[in-house]
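Slide 14.
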Amino acid sequence: MPGTSRREALALGFAAAAMPMLAGGARAAVLKYTLNPVAIAPGVWTIYGLPEPITSKNGGAIANITIFDTSEGAVLIDAGPSHRYGEALKAKATELTGKPVVRVYLTHYHTDHVLGATAFESGTVSAGKTLTADLKKVGNDLTNAMYRVAGDWMRGTDIPTPGREAAEGVETVGERRFRLLPLAGHTSEDLCLYEESTGLLFPGDLVFLDRAATTPDARIDTWRTSLKTLGGIDHKLLVPGHGPVEAGTRGIAQTGRWLDTVEAQINDGFERGLDITELMAVPLPSWTDGIAVAKYEYARSVMHLMPGLEVARLPRLTRV
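Slide 15: predicted structure.
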C-alpha cells in the first residue's frame, strides 16, 4: 500500500480481522491484559511479568511494573509493552491509589518496559537523555518488531516521547524521595531508582532473578561495573526488571554469574572453532536448570555476541 508503513499496514489488517466474521455472526475477541498487583510495601504494588519470551499469547507482558501511591498521585516504574497495556495500567493505578498518574519513570528502551508510556501524557513520562535519544533513533524499529511478534495486542501503540529528563539526583513526589542513578550495560542507559522512605531498589533490567538475562544491546564489562555499584546500595527490597522481589542481593549475583557463564561458553566455543549453530547446542551448566528461558536466552546471546567476537579476533583478509 503506497505511503503506508509496515505498522500501519498491520494495524489495518488487524482492524479488518476484527470485523464481523459472518453477517450477524461472531466478532473477534477483544484482547485484555489481566493485571494482578502484589503489595510489597505500604502504598506500593508490583505487577509481575511472566517468565517467558514475548509472544502473541502474552502480549509482551513479561516485565515487572511497580505502582507507588503518593500524596500527589500515582508514580510508575516502567509502563509495559503496548498502548493497550498502558491504558490498563493507568486504570489499575488510579483504582489502587484513588489518584491520577503523575510520573512514569522509564528504566531503559526495551519494548516490554516502555511502549505502554504512549498511554500517558508526555509531561508525566521521565527518561534519561540517552534513553530518549535511543527511542528517537530506533523506536520505529522496536514498535515494528513488536507488531510482528505480539500482533493485535499492539493496536494503537506508537513511539513514546518522554517530556521529562531523569537526571542523576533526588526527585521528590509527594512524600516519596526517588534517588535516580543512570547506569548502563544492559543497554546504553539503564536508570536505577532507589526510594528512600521504603528502601526499595529498582535496577531495571540490570538485574534478573530466576529468569535468564537478555543481551541484545549488552556491553558486558559495563554491565558488570553497574552490578558492583548496585551491590553497594543498602536496600530493604530489590525489585528486578524480571523475576521475584527479594530482600537481598541474590539477583545481582545471579545476573553476574549468568553473564560470566554466557561469555565463557562463547569464548570457549570460538577458541574451539565452533560455528553459531554448534555453539547454541552446547549444554549450559547444571546451576542454570532453575533459570526460566535459559536455553532460549543463551541461544539469543550466542547470536548477539558471537559476531562481535569474530570481528574482534579473526584476522582480516586483504586483497593482494
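Speaker note: Confidence is low (pLDDT under 50) at residues 1-28.
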